[in-house]
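Journal club prep, shared notes

We agreed each person brings one worked example of a sequence with its structure written out as tokens. Mine is Protein cueball. I'm keeping it raw so we can talk through how to read the token line rather than staring at a rendered picture. Sequence first:
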Amino acid sequence: MELCYPRITRIFLILSIFGVLRAHARTWDLAVTIGREVNFFSSNGTLTGRLLNPSAVSLSAIAYDPESHEMYLGDIRNRNTSIFSKNLQEETKIWSPLLPNVNFTNIIGMVYDPVTSSLFYIDSILSSILRLRLTSNKSTRDFSESSSPPEVIIDLADKSPRSITLDLCTRTLYWTNSNRSSPSIESSDLSGTSRKTIINSNLYDPLAVAVDHTSGKLYWLDDEEGITYKVERSNLDGTQRELLAHGKHQQPVHLTIDEEFIYWTDWVHSAIWRLSKTPSPGREPEEWKSFLETNRDADPRSLVARDNLGHVDCVVVERMRESKSEANSEVYEGLITSTEDLGEDKKVEIVCLNGGHRQGNRCSCQKGYDGVQCETSVCHNFCVRGECEVHEGIPRCRCSSRFRGRRCEQDVCVGFCLNGGECEIQGGEPVCRCQDATGVRCQERIGGDGICGLLCTTGLQEFGDLDRIICRCLERNVTENSQCSMYIYGVQNKTLVIILSVIITVLTTSIIVLSYFVNKLRRRPRIKKRFVVSKNGITPLTSRPQLPGNQCEIMIEDCCNMNICETPCFEPNRRNPEPICNKKEEKNSLLLDMEGNNSC
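Then the structure, token by token:
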């Protein structure tokens, strides 16, 4: 069955969904947070207004209620307030604190539900999605007076939630998980139940997600590894996935859509980029608004488009979605709704990217691109360590000096230098800096004499653990290289030399001290015996009377410590020439001589 609507009817259906047929013009179409302020733009890029929030620090999330004209802002760095609110029709410039910062709340995504007057937001600290029910009286929307504190509806402790959006007709929440180990896009109802994984393949770091009510499509940004990013879309259930843009040198942050375009913020260029929802072949994203000159202290962050908000006429939306399923290739205002074949008289609308051309139901890609829509470059993730170039459709890598191989996957320095040598690249080739070894790869160990030769010939002060303290170098000869001989044979270690020196010093000192005491203990015993004798040496006195003029006193120890006893008053008899057996007998002989006997 084929449905055909007049052109005017199609346009009316699309516009009536959001009630944009008004008697008066709107003051803004798109709002973006940047630093502490909100900038408002018309659809042609004209700046229509700026609102500063003096109490804010870094605005990170934005939501809007078109019925009440209430705007909500999340602050990621404010220590006092996490969410602010303001009625844009009021002349006051004051933003009211809506939610205080409790336990370091960190809001990075936010969406407003006009049916339940609730804010759904992501807290990256809690890794959870929370709901804040708002009171109907705007004057009492200060959280301190509210009876409904935030409630956690989805705990994502094992994930890294980044962005959140809401399908107003199906009452479904969608969010991105940027966990590198398991990135995904998931959904659930507003109570947190019926949780489903929509997409979990071919994702790297999904950053932002948005729902297009007119087409029933899900759009998202994926920041790939390296310098590339992707803009993709699919049906709300994850089917019919399409790649819309695959670019480089951007750091996308947040995403929103209106009737015709996809908008996202980029921190590399500090700008807002946009892309048509029905891109023509070869058309690239355009830089829609730059903030490099106007806002140098902050980068654009969160976006909201007015066309995709409000009380959506879900009856009209449902009728359009049903018509797409019945007429599998019907197009409304250039919006492709299906890629299924309807018969020989129908042609499938496929968008070929990167200069590809459609041939029947398939894309004929230019050299260097592949995929259903020519969306994938053959260089994508091909070179491990190098730059990729396409030659006649074949990817080739220009490797850096350290790497080799078809994909630059081999490190030439791995296992090249032996025996502790250090590898470096010189002139594109690996070169080894050896220690205690020689050779191109340090494969030959050097003995002690060889090491000293290197020290002397090169003039180095040290070589590994060896220095000039151990090597003795001779004077340099004009015709011959200087020679060197080992002062201590064998390769010596500085630390070992120091330890041995200390040990030798201690041992030497110990020997000297012990020798002194041993010598002192081995001396002859001191005989402290006194005799009084006459000067003529005839009669020794056994008593000690007052010494007359012909008597004197002598200590035996004075004589016994000498081989020949010489005193001023006593001259012993000459000893026999026969040798005395020992020192004890010699002492006894001296005593007998003093008494007039001779036993030797």
